């Protein structure tokens, strides 16, 4: 089973966390995003969206990190990250969809403007975009923090795929300058995510 990824991609990291937690061995193929490897014809045959991660398994090619996480969980008998009960699974799905729709837009903007641009010398930071990203992320963080006021994990009997999905990009909160410092419930929960073996096992190497 092969995963095309980049070590600084939080989308890839949520997949790596899932695989590490489930004990699934992956052959890792690093895609050099800084050199434009995601735009080369051979990669576009795998994912026409120019993005990592991409999973290859027995001739089956799957992109979109949430779908890959679900697939890996469904391959693993007895796992609890993605429960079989319909209501419990719908609850996990709710947070996966929320992550993509509500949390990731702000995270993507701030990570691009505050972390990726300076790291790779891609022009000056756009203050207007930073302000937009902060508004989006603050709105999403309020929802997340309120939900976690009386919950240890996003879903009962966690951790689940939902915690991995949202926890991975929050790992960039310092480099991306995310406005999350005032959200105590969110930070407590993310401390629990960081304490998981899957977090340590998916940590980008220097």
Question: What do these coordinates show?
Answer:
- Strands 2-1-3-4 form a four-stranded mixed β-sheet, with helices on one face.
- The protein has helices at 10-22, 41-44, 65-74, 86-120, 127-147, 161-170, 184-194, 197-201; strands spanning 2-5, 27-30, 54-57, 60-63.
- By secondary structure, the protein is α+β, with helices and mostly antiparallel strands.
- Helices cover 53% and strands 8% of the residues.
- The chain folds into two domains: 2-74, Glutaredoxin (3-Layer(aba) Sandwich), CATH 3.40.30; 86-197, Glutathione S-transferase Yfyf (Class Pi), Chain A, domain 2.
- α1 (10-22) links the parallel β1 (2-5) and β2 (27-30).
**What's the main sheet like?**
4 strands, mixed
Distance between the first and last residues' Cα: 25 Å
**Structural class category:** alpha+beta
Mean pLDDT: 96
Spatial ordering of strands, largest sheet? 2-1-3-4
The low-confidence runs, each spanning 5 or more residues with pLDDT under 50, are none
Put simply, the count of helices is 8
Query: What is the total tally of β strands?
Result: 4
State which percent range the strand residues make up. Answer: 5-15%
Helix share, percent: 40-55%
- Looking at the structure, what is the overall shape? globular
Give the class-level CATH name of the largest domain: Mainly Alpha
Gyration radius, in Å: 17 Å
Number of separate structural domains: 2
So, CATH architecture of the largest domain? Up-down Bundle
The third-level CATH topology of the largest domain is Glutathione S-transferase Yfyf (Class Pi), Chain A, domain 2
Q: Give helix and strand order, one letter per element, not per position.
A: EHEHEEHHHHHH
